[in-house]
Write a structure and sequence with these properties.
The chain crosses the membrane at residues 16-34, 46-66. Keywords: Membrane, Transmembrane, Transmembrane helix. There is one protein chain. With 166 residues, the chain is an alpha+beta fold. The chain has helices at 16-39, 44-65, 137-148, and strands at 8-10, 69-73, 78-83, 88-93, 97-103, 112-118, 124-129, 153-155. It has a four-stranded antiparallel β-sheet, with no helix packed on it. A four-stranded mixed β-sheet has the order 7-6-5-8, with no helix packed on it. Helix 1 runs antiparallel to helix 2.
Length: 166
């Protein structure tokens, strides 16, 4: 891991609101289950609903907790992809970034970006950035990348299905 972090800052969201809503939803499911058992009103319909709700919310929670943290150093112009579980870090100099594509995947009101870059073996890799809401760090990254790599491909629109062909 890098020790000099003076200009390095986080550009990916922590999904705090999503985590809060998921935990509230899971608590509501547990509360409803206990209430239905106590009232002896447990039915096949309620079992199905509670099971599906639990599966969806647990899946969303797993998705949120497995996202990689992305930091940016605007002086060194390096994007850092940090996997906290594996304790690994990938450094991506902005001149190695080929595409920054807006993505509709990210939920209502949220957006994400797919960053396509070349690794140290010159192999194409992708990472998805879920930026911090109401933060313009992605604009800084795009500007810095265009200065270092004039051939950068950017897209600031998406209709969903076009992402299948990128």
């Amino acid at each position: 891991m890098t020790t000099d972090n003076s200009n390095r800052y986080r550009v990916s969201t922590k999904f705090t609101l999503t985590k809060v809503f998921v935990f509230i939803g899971l608590f509501s499911i547990v509360f409803s289950t206990i209430r239905e058992i106590g009232n002896d009103t447990f039915s096949q319909k309620s079992i199905t609903g509670l099971s599906l709700g639990t599966i969806v919310l647990t899946g969303l929670l797993v998705f949120v907790y497995t996202r990689k943290r992305i930091d940016y150093d605007d002086i060194k112009q390096i994007l850092y992809v940090v996997d906290t579980k594996r304790q690994t870090e990938i450094e991506i100099p902005v001149e190695k970034i080929d595409k920054i594509l807006y993505s509709a995947i990210g939920g209502r009101g949220n957006k994400s970006y797919v960053i396509v870059y070349r690794d140290f073996h010159n192999q194409r890799q992708k990472v998805r950035l879920f930026p911090i809401p109401f933060d313009n760090s992605i604009d800084t990254i795009i500007t810095d990348t265009k200065l270092q790599n004039p051939n950068l491909v950017t897209r600031n629109w998406s209709i969903g299905w076009n992402e299948l062909f990128d």
